[in-house]
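Design request, tokens follow.
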């Protein structure tokens, strides 16, 4: 096993199988679906598609990701690389190879799949998402002197570098915490273009006013928090 793929999932029964099926070169990967308190058939569909399912009933994107990391820590032989992606089929799993090429061949520590640099299906990125990305990138540029175009969840990182980040956030601040800590610790960091399509089902974050506001607050709070 060279690569672990961590997929947080909450009520993604319609999409999770498609995500897993489209992951390339699964012979050298372990696919972990971190079932974040789903009340539908997400677990069943993930198992049927050949993934391993971990259960994390504490709600929160970060909680689910941390569950996957803890599982990998306990393996006798951990992976070299970890890919994070969503379970809603908005990303194109085949582009995982492009991310991994940058960490394996070009030796980057952290590679972010930037939706802002890629081709977006019409309607795939909501106005709050686009504004949030712009505002976050602006703040990170001002505070940390690093150009950031996206906080997208599709990313690849070296396992040893992931451990060095000592990730802590349990909810919406997970992705930006990883980027800021990597920047502060002077990891080699790169963004590459990835494509993006309309997700299957309704977003639990950008699909609601409450989710959008909470996520926006947490992201801005996290950006400022690590500036100390």
């Amino acid at each position: 096993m060279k690569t672990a793929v961590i997929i947080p999932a909450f009520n993604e029964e319609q999409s999770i199988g498609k995500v897993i099926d489209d992951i390339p070169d699964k012979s050298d990967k372990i696919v972990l679906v971190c079932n974040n308190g789903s009340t539908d058939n997400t677990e069943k569909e993930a198992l049927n598609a050949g993934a391993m399912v971990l259960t994390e009933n504490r709600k929160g994107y970060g909680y689910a990701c941390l569950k996957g990391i803890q599982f990998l820590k306990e393996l006798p032989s951990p992976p070299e690389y970890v890919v994070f992606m969503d379970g809603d089929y908005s990303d194109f799993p085949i582009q995982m190879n492009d991310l991994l090429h940058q960490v394996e061949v070009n030796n980057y520590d952290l590679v972010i799949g930037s939706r802002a640099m890629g081709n977006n299906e019409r309607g795939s990125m909501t106005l709050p998402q686009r504004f949030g990305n712009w505002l976050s990138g602006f703040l990170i540029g001002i505070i940390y002197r690093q150009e950031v175009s996206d906080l997208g969840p599709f990313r690849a990182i070296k396992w040893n570098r992931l451990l060095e980040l000592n990730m802590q956030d349990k909810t919406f601040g997970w992705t930006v915490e990883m980027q800021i800590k990597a920047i502060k610790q002077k990891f080699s960091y790169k963004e590459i273009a990835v494509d993006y399509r309309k997700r299957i089902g309704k977003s639990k974050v950008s699909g609601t006013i409450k989710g959008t506001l909470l996520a926006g607050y947490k992201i801005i709070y996290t950006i400022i928090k690590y500036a100390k």
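Comment from the thread starter after seeing the answer: thanks! The chain has a mean pLDDT of 93.
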